[in-house]
Amino acid sequence: MESGPFCLGTSRLELVAPTPDMLAAAASFDSNRLGELLTARVTEEWPPELLVDALDYLMNRIGKHPDESVWWMWLFVRVEEGKERVLIGNGGFKGPPGLDGVVECGYAILPEFQRHGYAPEGVARLIEWAFSKRVRRVTAQTFPQLDASVKVMEKLGMKQSGHGVEDGMETVEYAVCRPGCDDD
Length: 184
What we know:
Layout: E1 6-9, E2 13-17, H1 20-27, H2 31-38, E3 41-42, H3 49-52, H4 55-64, E4 73-78, E5 86-93, E6 102-109, H5 118-131, E7 137-142, H6 147-155, E8 159-166, E9 169-177
Parallel strand pairs: 3-5, 6-7
Antiparallel strand pairs: 1-2, 2-4, 4-5, 5-6, 7-9, 8-9
Helix pairs in contact: 1-2, 1-4
């Protein structure tokens, strides 16, 4: 008997570490099947643009290392009282923490659900969970012109910690350390 997915909750969200069946449905763009497995509506806008290219990689990586699945993608399902249960986005990490205890997080909320505080709420819960494991520092990158993304990071208590390059464009890195960590 297959057990259900591992979930974390907030007041308005259920964060679901997808099962292999959920990942397969997501990677094949089978919204009906994914919705059945999540018991949530999946909108026509699913998946977020940034996730499309990553789905095959995630399927392959998690297939080879199922014990690492919680260090990759989490599905964000809105479970807010009085509102429809619906898949609104995703968030997670770019793999398990390294020996230095650092992970990089990312997130994407579908346009219809942006600017309602779901991204900081969901990512804050993921960061809290990561800090309860072996993580001492969480980083995130964005393009400096993406004001909404920068605001999410600032709401999470992240501070600008450096610069990077993605797709030939300059990015800014933000980071937050586990309480008691000495490299703030």
